Amino acid sequence: MTETAPRPTLEAVAALAGVSRATVSRVVNGGDGVREPLVQRVRRAVEELGYVPNRAARSLVTRRHDAVAVVIAEPEARVFTDPFFGLQLRGISKELTAHDSQLVLLLTEGRDDHARVARYLAGGHVDGALVFSLHLDDPLPGLIRGAGVPTVFGGRPDWSDASGSSVYVDCDNRGGARAAVHHLVGLGRTRIAHITGALDQTSAVDRLDGFRDVMGDTDPRLIVESDFTPAGGERAMRELLDRRPDVDAVFAANDLTASGALRVLRECGRRVPEDVAVIGFDDMLPVAEQTDPPLTTVRQDIEGMGRLMASLLLTGLDRGHREETAPDARPGVILPTTLVHRGSA
Q1: Greatest CA separation found in the chain?
Q2: What are 133-167's pLDDT values in tens digits?
Q3: DSSP state of 8
Q4: Nearest alpha-carbon partner for 213 in 173, 241, 240
Q5: How far is Cα 115 from Cα 260, in angstroms, rounded to an integer?
Q6: Backbone angles phi, psi at 21, to 5 degrees
């Protein structure tokens, strides 16, 4: 057996730096009240000895776990196949990593998982939670509120027990939809259809409202409900062609839905954009740049939204706030959208 060298201790760091153990503890744990020359001496000693703070002991002092739960209210199969979630998780992970905090991913396959997630959050394992892809009848917000965990939501909240102070990050879904439909009108299209997302989510409702802002009381046959998936886009496009074979433009609620619609149009011999112009929403490059033709779409900064969610939560935690919402954060942060022109419209 090979013997391992003992781990450096706070006492060893203090002796090398020529300061007290309490001073080392304050520096290592991010405390205040230590003069800068001493801070530098402690940091040099930490680096020289290779001292690694004991997280368990540190949490007793700081009451922080340096871990954040990311709760996605979708089944595993959806999360790992939809690029939207990967982009948002990448943004969250970058921000947490920059602050030496760990990401704990929690998924909800069904209602039985909600109580499990609530128990975990209430158990004091994490400092806060980032929650997104909620559905309108989802019990998670109430369960999380009961757990007393600081929380930032992804997407505009619209559940029955929501307070007006809930912190959330979203994009301008309604304005982005208006821009897309205005573009189609500007192309001279007159029979413009909308394939919605899942209407139990506020993003889909807002995009439908943006469509209606421009189109007014359009033929109801030109609006088909879908679910933000490629298969849903295919089903909706077939239904739309059955209802209104003369359709000359489609605004799809997201890029995946648009990709499914494009496949059906190609199968049916409809040229894009000559016969039917198509616009999506999200600008997820793995999808939008690889469709045939490349997809004109409304861009939202998905990764940036993830980073901002994490930043808002960490800012609140750094200031010692232990309630659901981050201090002095605006209840809702709405990020702008832009229309990206490619070949489909």
Answers
A1: 83
A2: 888 878 888 888 888 888 899 998 875 444 556 78
A3: P
A4: 173
A5: 35
A6: -60, -40
Placement of tokens 């909620």 in the chain: 134
Helices 140-147, 111-122: axis angle to 10 degrees equals 20
320 contact partners, CB below 8 Å, separation of at least 6: none
d(CA 33, CA 282) in angstroms, rounded, equals 47
Judge whether 267 and 294 are in contact, CB under 8 Å: no
Residue closest to 230 by CA, chosen among 197, 190, 257: 257
User: 311-343 pLDDT, tens per residue?
Assistant: 999 887 766 544 444 444 457 899 999 999 999
Q: What is the 3-state secondary structure of 241-297?
A: HHHCCCCCEEEECCHHHHHHHHHHHHHCCCCCCCCCEEEEEECCHHHHCCCCCCCEE
Continuous segment of H or E residues that includes residue 339: strand 338-340
Tokens of 113: 């998982």
Distance from CA of residue 174 to its chain's centroid?
Answer: 18
Bridge partners (DSSP) of residue 338 are 299
Give the pair of three-digit tokens for residue 77.
Answer: 């199969």
d(CA 315, CA 322): 12
pTM for the structure as a whole: 0.79
**Residues constituting the chain:** 345
Residues 30-87 have pLDDT tens digits of 666 788 888 888 888 888 888 776 654 554 444 555 889 999 988 888 899 999 999 9
